[in-house]
């Protein structure tokens, strides 16, 4: 764990928990490279303007990422969290000096087994910003797991599908196209890279729970899991060996990495 390239103090870390104002991006690092690194940096810069109304020095961020990944002996998931440890809860609108906290964990092997999802009515605050306010998403994930499911899928009150707790969901239709929900969601880098790799537009449409049986398969995507098959959403089930799933996974894994 490094804050601006140095080990953080307890006070610096505690401010992140107490004020809870910040944003982040997570990336899978393999042999010093990241798929979609430029998209991750673009996200950090965009969200910094939204959250802190200031610019982020991306060259400095990249230096911190390289330092944190230098001793990695295998694939890791690296998270860069941007926050200002000097901001106070009563004055979050003060001029901010963005700090960069980089943490690393070992990356799980992929592909991962299929998931069973339970739906919940929920919309993340500022859904298009990858912010650190994860209580609602994690709370609903926990509830789904207590009910015997693997994860949660969010919907609006009218049953319109949006996203999973920390992943995008896509549905494979009868024409072997991948359709993403048209909703207020965080457009993930994995989803965007997958569409670029297939030279396809990001096809979106409003998808209701009642529409799910018409699809042939479903996947979740994020940097930690890559492309992961979905076995079911509530009572709707799909085959997890649909040939498009393996094709999508191969397309994603063929994307060259960018050096940190």
How would you describe this protein?
The protein has 260 residues and is of the alpha+beta class. Helices cover 27% and strands 28% of the residues. It has helices at residues 10-19, 37-52, 58-69, 135-146, 189-197, 243-253; strands at residues 2-3, 23-30, 33-34, 76-83, 99-106, 115-121, 151-155, 161-164, 168-172, 178-181, 204-205, 217-222, 226-233, 236-237, 258-259. Strands 6, 7, 8, 9, 10, 11, 12, 13 and 14 form a nine-stranded mixed β-sheet that branches. The longest helix is centred in the N-terminal third of the chain and has 16 residues, at 37-52.
From the alpha carbons, calculate the radius of gyration and give it in angstroms: 19 Å
| N- and C-termini, Cα separation | 17 Å
Spans where pLDDT lies below 50 across 5 or more residues: none
Shape: globular
Helix content: 25-40%
Q: What's the order of the H and E elements? A: EHEEHHEEEHEEEEHEEEEHE
Give a quick rundown of the structure.
The chain is α+β, with helices and mostly antiparallel strands and 260 residues long. It has helices spanning 10-19, 37-52, 58-69, 135-146, 189-197, 243-253; strands at 2-3, 23-30, 33-34, 76-83, 99-106, 115-121, 151-155, 161-164, 168-172, 178-181, 204-205, 217-222, 226-233, 236-237, 258-259. 27% of the residues lie in helices and 28% in strands.
């Amino acid at each position: 764990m490094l804050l601006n390239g140095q080990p953080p103090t307890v006070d610096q870390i505690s401010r992140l928990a107490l004020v809870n104002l910040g944003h982040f991006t997570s990336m899978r690092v393999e042999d010093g490279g990241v798929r979609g690194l430029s998209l991750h940096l673009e996200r950090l810069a965009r969200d910094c303007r939204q959250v802190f109304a200031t610019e982020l020095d991306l060259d400095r961020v990249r230096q911190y990422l390289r330092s944190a990944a230098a001793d990695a002996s295998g694939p890791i998931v690296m998270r860069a969290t941007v926050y200002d440890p000097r901001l106070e809860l009563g004055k979050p609108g003060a001029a901010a000096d963005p700090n960069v906290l980089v943490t690393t964990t070992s990356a799980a092997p992929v592909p991962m087994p299929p998931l069973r999802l339970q739906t919940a009515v929920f919309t993340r605050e500022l859904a298009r910003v990858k912010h650190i306010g994860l209580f609602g998403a994690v709370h609903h994930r926990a509830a789904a797991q207590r009910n015997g499911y693997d994860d949660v899928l969010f919907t609006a009150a009218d049953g319109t599908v949006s996203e999973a707790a920390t992943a995008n969901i896509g549905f494979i239709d009868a024409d072997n196209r991948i359709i993403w929900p048209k909703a207020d969601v965080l457009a993930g880098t994995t989803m965007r890279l997958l569409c670029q790799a297939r030279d396809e537009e990001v096809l979106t449409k409003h998808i209701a729970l009642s529409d799910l049986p018409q699809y042939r398969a479903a996947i979740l995507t994020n940097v930690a899991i890559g492309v992961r098959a979905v076995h079911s959403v509530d009572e709707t089930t799909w085959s997890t060996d649909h040939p498009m799933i393996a094709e999508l996974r191969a397309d994603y894994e063929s994307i060259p990495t960018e050096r940190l």
